[in-house]
Amino acid sequence: MLSGTDVVLTMSYALFAFGLIVPPDVLLASGLTLENLFHRWLGSEEISFVTYHLRRTIMVRLVAGFLPLGYFLFMMFFASTSLATYLLGGIGLSLSLALVIFTHVCTVWYARGTWEGHPTVRNLCEIVKRVQETPPTEGDPPELELLRSLSSWQSVASHIDAECRRLEKFTAYSGRGLISSWPGRRFLVTNSWILFSHASTFKPIFQFMGRLCAMVVDSQTLLDTQTTTMSGHPAGENLGTQTMATVRIVDSENGLCQLSVVIPVGDLEELRTYLQFPLIVAQGVVLEPTIVQQFLTAFLRLVAENPTVRPPADMVRILC
User: Fold this and answer.
1) Tens of pLDDT along 45-96?
2) Could you tell me the pTM of the whole model?
3) Cβ atoms within 10 A of the Cβ of 233, count?
4) DSSP letters of 76-95?
5) How far apart are CA 281 and CA 264, in angstroms?
6) Which of 11, 73, 88, 200 has its C-alpha lying 20 to 30 A from 247's C-alpha?
7) Is 105 exposed, middle or buried (0-12, 13-18, 19+ CB in 10 A)?
8) Closest C-alpha to 84, from 2, 166, 179, 206
9) Where are the domains of the chain?
């Protein structure tokens, strides 16, 4: 039977684990994140984007795999004697040890010098294989011809890193366009690639493979804490709210959804400029304009309704 102290300790550890994996805004502002703690091992995201997120996904899996064992050790030292004996003699401790061993074995398999066991690397190898099997045609874009000349996933990763270092790309991350507080979440669109990173997942999509289509399937207005003052009153052009659009990347050949991401409605036009395929709005989806856009529309309509004023020819004009 759990005592009151055991319940408090369990809830405290659950809050610690949740804050470690999905840190709140307070921890993000202070820099207490896994990415900052392991920044020396992760390397530079700006220089080696692919390697950084390969290591970051491994880091998240290792930490998450150690959390159940950490709970048993935590309760063994701080909980009551009866509970500690029950935990040590139960099946939970054995499963937590097996989970730690499994995650470490996967890490050794992933990072055995080639990373070929990592799901992202296997995805890149599949992309290279499909591009190599596609017969060239006259209308192939230069990006497809360039990828066809690359024979390994390492060279493809270098190509992705080079495009990520350019300024001409669409970028959304936690605090800028993405509503999740997960610090490692990224959504990048370059001239050739769509890159999405979240938690222990890193998914690359080559824009010129298959028949892709981006579709806005839903929109919702959310409370935007970044546009409110310290007292909670609305501030900024959105007056405390932000309209978000759910965008899905779909392969029209097989109907599979490759990716689903939620971004602000105001970023859709910028996203459209970097996509190499159509961005359409599904029937029935209404994208509400922001307060500033509504004001500009009403202001321009009133200006157009007013008659044109022409000053007298002999009037002295003062230059601004």
Assistant:
1) 899 999 999 989 888 888 888 888 888 888 777 776 555 555 555 677 777 7
2) 0.79
3) 9
4) HHHS-HHHHHHHHHSHHHHH
5) 14
6) 200
7) exposed
8) 2
9) 4-113, 167-291
